[in-house]
Amino acid sequence: MQPLDWDDLTRELDLWAEAGRVATLWWRDDDATEPSPALDRLLDLTAAYRLEIGLAVIPAAAGAGLAEAVAGRPYVAVLQHGYRHRNHAPAGEPAVECGGARPVEEVLEEMGAGCRLMVRLFASRFEPILAAPWNRIERPVLARLAEAGYRAASAFGPRARMAGANSLVVVNAHLDPLNWKEKRFAGRDKALSGLIGELRARRTGAMEADEPLGLLTHHLDHDEATWEFLARLLEEATAHPAACWLGAREVFGVSPAPRAALAEARR
């Protein structure tokens, strides 16, 4: 079997166009704490394509420097990435901060402290959306996030798996182009296979057709091949009429007029 190439993505999107449909995508980036050349490169990409990213910030590790770095950037919605990004899972269990071996009240109190830090640092740039470290929110915590003041949550995989979110909006990520065992780009074939597979599943009804496809990145861990893939993906997907990138606020539905606000920022 031949490795996948960008023409394969075009052919999949052509099938969407033939069906009179448009695939929606959005972008989340995790683990932001401070200014860096990698963060600048990430935000330069968002500006080049006028695409609002959901930047997931670790509250306890962030400071005024990060707030200043995003202040002049119109294409950033700041999300909350847990509190310290610290694992509280029992030994031998998958890593989790939004849950683990703690009472739910303790988890919610910690997340609330993080939320207050985010408001102080980022003011209106911050949205009360919990993007979970390790993409895990245990169900007892998920069920009470809305009463704790959160509007939405984001993890990984089909949102149907996050049953019990009550009134929360759930918008997940689905594609991570990194190979985490080796901390490098997973390769074009694997990344495109994941992307095209997600698109095909929506087109054929194998999963929820209108669930936006989420791209998940980690700017601090990118090698050059990852940056090159991201730039090409943005170029290919924005050029095709059957693909539409949604801004982070827009995809969560937390802004009354997200497109108008972005249009104003572009002037």
How does this structure look, described?
The protein is of the alpha/beta class and 267 residues long. It has a single domain, classed as Glycoside hydrolase/deacetylase (TIM Barrel, Alpha-Beta Barrel), CATH 3.20.20. Helix content is 39%, strand content 16%. It contains nine helices and ten strands. The chain has helices at residues 6-18, 37-49, 64-71, 104-122, 139-142, 188-204, 224-239, 248-252, 258-266, and strands at residues 23-32, 53-57, 76-80, 126-131, 152-154, 169-170, 178-179, 184-185, 213-217, 243-245. Strands 1, 2, 3, 4, 5, 6, 9 and 10 form an eight-stranded parallel beta sheet that branches. The termini are far apart. Mean pLDDT is 93; it is low at 256-267.
In short:
The protein has helices at 6-18, 37-49, 64-71, 104-122, 139-142, 188-204, 224-239, 248-252, 258-266; strands spanning 23-32, 53-57, 76-80, 126-131, 152-154, 169-170, 178-179, 184-185, 213-217, 243-245.
Tally the helices: what do you get? 9
Helix content: 25-40%
Reading the helices and strands in chain order gives HEHEHEHEHEEEEHEHEHH
The proportion of residues in beta strands is 15-25%
Average pLDDT value?
93
Helix vs. strand class? alpha/beta
Shape: globular
Distance between the termini: 48 Å
> Could you tell me the number of beta strands?
10
CATH class: Alpha Beta
- Biggest sheet, open or closed, and with what strands and sense? 8 strands, parallel
Whole-angstrom Rg? 18 Å
Q: Could you name the CATH topology?
A: TIM Barrel
Number of domains: 1
CATH architecture classification: Alpha-Beta Barrel
